[in-house]
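Example for tutorial group B:
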């Protein structure tokens, strides 16, 4: 059988394969580059970038849980000015598609940050983070408000022709309503899902294990939730979906594509196995060959639900 076609399209964004490295799990690319060949990955989504530098939350910011991880980093980043000067030169060298994740406290900051980065040729698209659960301003304040998600999408759309992916929160009643709002205002795709709100306590002191009290739960524990959210969007909104949530291997990835994802992100697994992306790539190829699938597009939203 000839080589399997692993190319996928996320709106106008063409990727060599559907594997994306999730924002916040591989820094700005250089942190993971010494452990894996980034040129084989479909795309890298950078750590969140905001208009001004952010220190993030005080430590302790990460706690391991049963089948998952809690984090409350608080969108710590160098700010857009330092990102352009210090991080993009490296990103130009790794020969992968670069998507920039943008976070902000206000709609105006989303717009200004996107406008600045729109001039950078190496940035091929934007993931707009409207759903971080670990910050006091921005984040879920926007992610829980359909009107705000629509307004942010509309305003960002007005300043760039590059693909826009809106990263949605699972901490809502109907995630498909948010996907509809994003599509209506010009989004090319949505990412589903961001982390779930969770917490953990030290049983000997009674204190929260992380300083922020609550954090975002990721990892295998949230995979069934993420799959259900992807399926809900797939059944209700005609928009490309980037699935994310607890993908640890190629079988998990196939599940997300069957549920409706055109592509997927891997996150927590990067901390355990930096080569997970390339291993998933090989697993997908073998899966397609065994099932005589010529193109990965054949399995997107191929779910067979009871009638």
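The residue assignment follows.
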């Amino acid at each position: 059988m000839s080589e399997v076609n692993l190319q996928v399209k996320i709106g106008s964004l063409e990727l060599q394969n559907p594997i994306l490295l999730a924002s916040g799990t591989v820094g700005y690319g250089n942190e993971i580059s010494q452990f894996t060949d980034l040129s084989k990955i479909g795309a890298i989504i950078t750590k969140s970038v905001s208009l001004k530098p952010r220190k993030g939350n005080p430590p302790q910011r990460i706690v391991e849980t049963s089948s998952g991880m809690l984090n409350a980093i608080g969108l710590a980043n160098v700010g857009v000015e330092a990102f352009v000067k210090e991080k993009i030169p490296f990103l130009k060298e790794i020969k992968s598609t670069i998507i920039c994740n943008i976070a902000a406290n206000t709609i105006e900051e989303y717009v200004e940050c996107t406008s600045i980065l729109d001039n950078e040729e190496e940035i091929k698209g934007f993931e707009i983070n409207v759903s971080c659960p670990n910050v006091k301003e921005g984040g879920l304040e926007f992610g829980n408000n359909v009107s705000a998600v629509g307004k942010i999408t509309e305003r960002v759309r007005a300043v760039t022709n590059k693909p826009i992916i809106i990263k949605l929160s699972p901490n809502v009643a109907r995630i498909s309503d948010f996907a509809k709002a994003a599509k209506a205002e010009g989004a090319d795709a949505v990412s589903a899902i961001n982390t779930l709100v969770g917490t953990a306590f030290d049983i000997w002191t009674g204190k929260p294990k992380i300083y922020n009290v609550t954090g975002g739960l990721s990892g295998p524990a949230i995979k069934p939730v993420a799959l259900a959210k992807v399926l809900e969007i797939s059944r209700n909104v005609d928009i490309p979906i980037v699935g994310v949530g607890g993908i640890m291997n190629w079988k998990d990835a196939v599940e997300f594509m069957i549920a409706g994802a055109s592509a997927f992100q891997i996150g927590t697994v990067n901390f355990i196995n930096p080569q997970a992306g390339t291993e998933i790539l090989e697993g997908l190829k073998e899966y397609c060959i065994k099932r005589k699938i010529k193109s990965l597009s054949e399995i997107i939203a191929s779910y067979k639900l009871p009638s």
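The mean pLDDT is 94. Compare this with the pattern of hydrophobic and polar residues in the output above.
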